[in-house]
Amino acid sequence: MQLRSFWAIWTIFTMCWISSAFGQAQWEQFRGAGGLGVAAAGQNLPVEFDRSKNVIWKCAVTKGHSSPCIWGNRIFLTGYAKRIFDTICIDRKSGKILWQKSIPVENIERVHQISSPAAPTPTTDGERVFVYFGSYGLLCYDFEGNLVWERKMPMPQNMYGTAASPMLAGGKLIIMDDRAEDSWLLALDPETGDEIWKMDRAGFKAGWSTPVYRQDGEVEEVLVYSKWRVVAFDLKDGSERWTFPGLTDEPCITPVTGEGLVYLTSYNMRTNPEVIGLPKWSELLDEYDKDKDGELTLEETKPNKSILSRFDADGEGDHPLWGFFRFLDVDRSGKINEKEWGKMIAYIDSFEFENALLAIRPGEAGRQAKVVWKDPNGVPECPSPLYYQGRVYMVKDGGIASCLDARTGERKYQRLLGSGGPYYSSPVAADGKIYVGSARGMMTVFEAGDKLKVLARNNLKERIMATPAIVDGKIYVRTDKNLYAFGAKK
Question: Would you state the pLDDT for residue 490?
Fold first, then answer.
């Protein structure tokens, strides 16, 4: 109990110190201070809000998935349209755009159909703002919009496009780029953009998770969640300190820390209990084999919407049978037979990594990282977990919310929020409340605690992909059309 109290007090102290540093309101990176998704205490936040209620202002912005980055009275976002990347600075009081800098780019990286080439969130040190576009590289602007430096980078090659955001720690700007070839972790001087160190990460072929800062005694670490493992690097020189294997092949979430542990989720479509699994071959024939010859042609498979689906996700990310036709048509006969369908079963059965929320005790010199507890239920694919007031929360597709004791892993609840659809935005917390947005545009507010108590379901009627920011008693929500500032009316 004493150890738990220490970590709770330490978290509160850290959040309060960071939020009050230099007298500025801050949410300086993806999910705010430390990437934890927790705002400073003592804020009176709104519970009910929509496009006409408790809205302070709204600002139309270029489409993108980056989340608000805030320092003082400035909000930074990025956007993309018609081969042009925008860095946008908005006045936090009025909601007016102060400046917008555009970079035309001819060759645009391939991204997932539901993603955006402007997905990484900016970060700031209070003097400069740093933005990363996979199709271009890193750009550094001062607060007046003047370009300080830029660092063009090779276009990443991965199946979904760039998503990991830059972060600042220990006077270094950290950027991760996991790709099919030549993956790396890079530390730069924020003032000049000069390289401090670069760690070769060959073999880490995919990753969309933002690095996380962690302090272990006198040592400062950067945690990087990559394909099949999480690795801790020494912030001083980039050397590897410890690793934990056996994790997902497509890491989208960003880990969080608390209670001296690292919390992360590993998603596996084969064993995730909420996934709608593969149909039987006989079921496919009954529905699609029009000529009743016991095989399926490409034309016959086209009506199929999915052979592997996420629960209540509006069909997003579904896997239609026709998309696997060439993979399954081994003999190139133009038809799939039952034996060839077995290749699909074998492929899914090869997913042997974890499906769980894991609490990991970090490693150190002479000690391996180890699992303290894990839970296989309610594991999200994209939204990051939230550590708040001694509990870990998760929200996944369908609005399935879970709460577990952060120290023991005891499950307090797993219930539906009553706000369905796909979820990509990560939950954030403050004022004893948790806020999370669905892609359908519903911002749900529920009470922090051992029992689920939904306080409000706020329909913004605009798609939500970005994670909200909380500063100074206001919640800033980016939709596919606007940035909103919501606050309780006095």
Answer: 65
